[in-house]
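Quiz preparation item.
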């Protein structure tokens, strides 16, 4: 303590008080600077975002355009195939029409003759040629009616 008694006290200069108006002006200025900086950052981000959306939209449009081009090419190929198939379909239609006309021309009388021939034991090829039937029809007549007279005679003999 003895060292303190001999020393002189140093005085710290005091600052003069800042008026409240000045503090408020400085606070407003700082707030405005901060607000402008924040608005600038938001504007830059908004601009980047809209640029990104524009690029995405362009990319999507190009992708959609490419898909549409592929779909149109496939439709064109299908139209070509369909145009190539039309004459063949017309020819098949004519063949069917001819077949149905010939089938309609076969009278029930021809079937009666075919049944008699099948019961008499004639082969399907002979029945087809003689009655104007298709080979498959003649085979069906033979399967259905061949040997029926023999079976009927056999049953009659068994009963007697």
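Solution:
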């Amino acid at each position: 303590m003895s060292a303190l008694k001999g020393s002189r006290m140093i005085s710290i200069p005091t600052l003069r008080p800042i008026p409240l108006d000045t503090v408020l002006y400085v606070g407003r200025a700082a707030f405005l600077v901060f607000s402008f900086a924040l608005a600038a950052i938001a504007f830059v981000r908004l601009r980047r975002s809209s640029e990104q959306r524009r690029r995405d939209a362009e990319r999507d449009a190009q992708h959609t355009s490419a898909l549409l081009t592929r779909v149109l090419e496939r439709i064109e190929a299908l139209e070509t195939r369909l145009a190539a198939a039309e004459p063949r379909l017309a020819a098949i239609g004519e063949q069917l029409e001819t077949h149905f006309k010939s089938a309609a021309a076969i009278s029930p009388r021809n079937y009666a003759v075919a049944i008699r021939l099948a019961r008499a034991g004639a082969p399907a090829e002979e029945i087809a040629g003689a009655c104007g039937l298709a080979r498959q029809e003649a085979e069906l007549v033979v399967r259905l009616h061949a040997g029926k007279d023999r079976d009927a005679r056999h049953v009659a003999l068994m009963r007697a």
